[in-house]
Write a structure and sequence with these properties.
Number of helices: 13
Order of helices and strands: HHHHHHEEEHEHHEHHHEEEEEEH
Strand order of the largest sheet: 6-9-10-11-8-7
Shape: extended
Mean pLDDT: 83
Largest sheet: 6 strands, antiparallel
Low-confidence stretches: none
Helix content: 25-40%
Length: 442
């Protein structure tokens, strides 16, 4: 069952369950109400979900080649026409065997049999670059490239840049240690503040620009859920910039060719300026980009600009942010990144406890509360520490003397008496032996 057929089954079941009307089901499927009624009749009278599957599913197409023809063509190639290419093989079959098949069919037959061409197909021809857009501001191409911009004087870092497709003007550029969301956001801010809001943006499929689960399920689509976006994608949606994600690098060839030029020229320019750090390179970069634009930018085919003016009420610092959701606590407090925040000033907004609100973190690490399209300043607060009563230190204990009747005293007296008795016995033995020795000597 295809995705479209599964969607029809789910809609029809929801209509039978009373969760949707025929009109709502027709709007969800892009059909008329009469077609929805026919789908309901098929589902009810002809076997449920199977009735909504296309009738030709699983059948062999009427124009398909018979198995005998496929087997004969494969045998003729291995025995008689071996080494010919697909086009020549089809011509030979028609000329000598009265067997007419197309070159593409011949190719599929041979690949199915595991037979590869003796001579591999030539590489595709190089095509001319895609024609530029007519007006400036219709399309920007954005990308980043890591490179040793300062040669051996510093580690390699990434250059983020955006180029206008119609004129070849580099609208913004910034160096960052690695390819990151902040670098792309800085580039967009530079270009929008200087030129205006473009109509569309072309990028690659880096995870900065998209989420892994961009595709919605059928249930989510019927529930009206929007496609999930990354933080950068949300900024593009807020500015109403169409975000196009290229599948191949060749699709955004304008910015890819820009790297060849900049890697060839910026390295020498930065060396001549005596730049030794990334911070110094960022200071010199605007002048170098201006020099590049004067030399390489071209006039668009139409002089009318497609840039849209930036709404004065829009603060770009509040657009290009990291966005998360938190729940308000009592006293208009919320926890974010291990810190408790509260409103910096009293606000007239209706903020209630346990309300889910959006927290935004700007590129300058400022944390703000975003509510009803307005930025509410926050300030960090500390939780009050509990004051505990001071513990009294224990004084030195008074020496204790056991009583005379204490067992320790009794044991000590007995031991002392034993030692005295043994000592006197030893002395008596010595004296008696000395006397015997004296008498013998006489």
């Amino acid at each position: 069952m295809t995705r479209a057929e599964l969607k029809k089954v789910l809609v029809v079941e929801k209509i039978f369950e009373g969760h949707m009307t025929n009109k709502e089901g027709a709007a969800a499927l892009g059909l008329t109400e009469r077609q929805v009624i026919r789908l309901k009749q098929k589902y009810q009278n002809k076997g449920g979900a199977r009735a909504l599957i296309h009738g030709n599913r699983g059948r062999k197409p009427a124009h398909a080649l018979p198995d005998e023809v496929r087997a004969k063509a494969a045998t003729l190639y291995t025995t008689k026409y071996q080494g010919s290419n697909n086009c020549h093989f089809a011509e030979l079959l028609e000329e000598h065997e009265s067997l007419k098949i197309s070159p593409s069919s011949a190719r599929r037959i041979l690949l199915a049999e595991g037979i590869k061409q003796a001579k591999q197909r030539r590489r595709g021809k190089a095509h001319q670059p895609r024609q530029r857009r007519e007006q400036a501001g219709m399309l920007w191409q954005i990308d980043a490239t890591p490179y040793a911009w300062l040669e051996h004087r510093a580690p390699a870092f990434a250059l983020h840049a955006a180029i206008d497709d119609a004129t070849g003007t580099v609208v913004g550029a910034v160096f960052r240690p690695n390819e990151c969301r902040e670098g792309y956001s800085r580039v967009m801010q530079q270009g929008i503040r200087k030129y205006g809001v473009p109509l569309s943006l072309y990028s690659d499929r880096h995870m900065i620009f998209r989420l892994p689960n961009e595709k919605l399920t059928v249930e989510q689509e019927l529930a009206g859920e929007m496609r999930p976006l990354s933080n950068f994608g949300k900024a593009m949606a807020e500015l109403r910039i169409e975000h196009i994600k290229a599948v191949t690098p060749q699709a955004k060839g304008r910015v890819e060719r820009l790297w060849v030029t900049l890697q060839d020229r910026l390295v020498v320019e930065l060396r001549l300026l005596g730049v030794n750090t990334m911070e110094e390179a960022n200071q010199e970069l605007p002048k170098l980009i201006e020099k590049h634009n004067r030399q390489f930018a071209v006039e668009p085919r139409k002089r009318e600009s497609a840039y849209l003016p930036l709404d004065p009420a829009v603060n770009l610092d509040h657009v290009f942010t990291k966005r998360e959701y938190r729940q308000l606590g009592s006293g208009h407090t919320l926890a974010y990144n291990g810190t408790i925040y509260t409103l910096a000033k009293p606000s007239s907004l209706r903020l209630n406890a346990k309300m889910t609100v959006e927290v935004r973190v700007t590129l300058d690490e400022e944390v703000i509360l975003w509510f009803q399209g307005k930025a509410v300043a926050l300030k960090p607060t500390e939780r009050p520490k509990r004051i505990s009563a001071p513990k009294e230190k224990a004084g030195s204990a008074q020496p204790r003397k056991p009583a005379s009747s204490h067992p320790w005293r009794t044991a000590e007296t007995q031991n002392q008496s034993k030692r005295t008795t043994s000592k006197s016995s030893f002395q008596d033995a010595i004296y008696s032996q000395h006397n015997r020795y004296s008498e013998a000597s006489w």
